[in-house]
Structures are given as structure tokens and as C-alpha cells.
Design brief:
Blueprint (H helix, E strand, L loop, with lengths): L14 H18 L8 H8 L3 H13 L3 E4 L2 E4 L9 E7 L3 H7 L7 E9 L5 E9 L1 H6 L1 H11 L8 H13 L1 E11 L9 E11 L5 E9 L4 E5 L8 E5 L1
Antiparallel strand pairs: 1-2, 3-4, 4-5, 5-8, 6-7, 7-8, 9-10
Length: 242
């Protein structure tokens, strides 16, 4: 692809600004394409026949204008117009020993486990929530027992709306405790910066203090997380800049 045309503008316009103007048009296509990301710096440098420093200056201009954000996976529009909807599924599974003890589960006992995954514009996992429901609670709650019985029969439920509503209502009425754990992982034999991850463990308790559900909310990687709790809130609100 040829370099951006110089016609229609002052001859003294810096090259990076002309490239930034061309990339603004690229953004319209990137925002609606699968993944929604701009080409790599190397690809752009070859396309416009400039060095990567010039491309970085053009991208910096777009960031200053609030049009793009740059992370470890490249540069994308600041606001993706069509975010991927969360993916949910329900399984019948055993819990890790440490969680089984908290939930009062016997060895080998299975319970309902709800998985909810939110994806970024390129299909990457932004957050993954895994909720284990107390077997005793499942047994005495008709809608949950129905999900369990169908799972035991090998029937996969496609409509998880009632379950989602039950979880939301329970979170609004239950006593909630939350623990935040931040991890930093450095791969051996590399000088790359360590990757950061965050896990929020949320436990829901009924009026008698009994544990009814446990959720591990995992953010595999992030550039910035904001954790906020209002005085009257029932839980943390976590926003992510990725």
C-alpha cells in the first residue's frame, strides 16, 4: 500500500501525522472486523515505508486523541462497538478438596458449577468466573435441583436465564465476603516483564451464616484494574482497562 497522500495538506506536515490521519480511516474498519485490532508496528512500517519510531509516533498521537489503546496484544480502538457477549455453561463436577471442605461436600460428591467467561475483541479471556453451589442448597431449591437432575441425565441446559436471575437475587440478599489475591508470574529464561493476574474469591452466606455459593473470579492479565465498593454495596465493582 502506498504512503499516505500529501495532497490537500501543507507540505511541512510531519510524516507521522499523515500516517495517523490514514490510520483513523483504518480504525473504522478495525472496529468492525473480527478482533478489532490494527496491524502490528512492523506491518505498518512496511506498508508506509517508514521506520517503527515513526509508526509509534503516529500511534501515540491516536492515543492522545483517545482513539486507541495499546496493550500487550497490540493496538485496538478505544471503544469496541460490538463487545462479545459473556459465555456461560453449567456442569456437574467435584470441587477441589479445599473448596469441597468449605462447601460441606463429601469425597467424590458432585455439585453444580457455573462458568462465565467474558471475552475481549480478539477473543482473549478478560475474566473467568467459576461458581460452586452448595449441594445442600441445590437439593432444597427446586430450580437448582432441576438443573442438577438434567445434568445427571446428560442433558445440557441451553437456557441459563433462571439460574442467572437466582444468582443475582442471592447476591443482592446474601451476606458476601470477598478476598482479593494478586499474582505475578515471570516465565523462566526471559527478560519480559512479569505478567499480572488477579483472583477475587466471593463467598455468599445465608442469614444463618451458612455458605451457599463460592465464586472465583479470575482476571488472567490486565493493564489496570479499579476496585470500588460503595458503603451500601453488596460487593466490589471491578472495572478493567485492557
Amino acid at each position: 500500500m502506498p504512503s499516505p497522500s500529501r495532497s490537500g495538506g501543507p507540505a511541512a506536515t510531519p510524516k507521522y501525522q499523515r500516517i495517523a490521519a490514514a490510520l483513523r480511516r483504518e480504525l473504522d474498519r478495525a472496529a468492525h472486523a473480527p478482533g478489532g485490532r490494527l496491524p502490528s508496528e512492523r506491518t505498518l512500517a512496511a506498508r508506509y515505508q517508514v521506520n517503527r519510531q515513526t509508526i509509534r509516533a503516529a500511534l501515540r498521537q491516536l492515543r492522545q486523541d483517545g482513539l486507541v489503546v495499546t496493550g500487550r496484544r497490540g493496538t485496538r480502538p478505544a471503544r469496541a462497538p460490538f463487545p462479545s457477549p459473556p459465555r456461560s455453561r453449567l456442569t456437574l463436577a467435584t470441587a477441589p478438596p479445599s473448596l469441597a471442605a468449605l462447601l460441606g461436600m463429601r469425597a467424590g460428591e458432585r455439585t453444580l458449577v457455573h462458568h462465565r467467561r467474558e471475552l475481549g475483541p480478539a477473543g482473549e479471556t478478560l475474566q473467568h468466573a467459576v461458581t460452586y453451589l452448595c449441594p445442600e442448597l441445590v437439593a432444597r431449591t427446586p430450580e437448582l435441583a432441576g438443573y442438577r437432575d438434567r445434568a445427571e441425565a446428560g442433558v445440557r441446559d441451553e437456557d441459563l436465564g433462571p439460574l442467572h436471575r437466582w444468582l443475582e437475587e442471592s447476591a443482592a440478599n446474601a451476606r458476601i465476603a470477598e478476598t482479593l489475591t494478586m499474582t505475578r508470574t515471570r516465565h523462566p529464561h526471559t527478560t519480559a516483564p512479569a505478567a499480572c493476574g488477579l483472583t477475587v474469591r466471593r463467598t455468599l452466606h445465608d442469614d444463618a451464616g451458612r455458605l451457599i455459593a463460592l465464586t472465583d473470579l479470575v482476571f488472567p492479565s490486565w493493564d489496570r484494574l479499579t476496585i470500588h465498593r460503595d458503603r451500601a454495596a453488596t460487593g466490589f465493582r471491578v472495572t478493567q482497562d485492557h
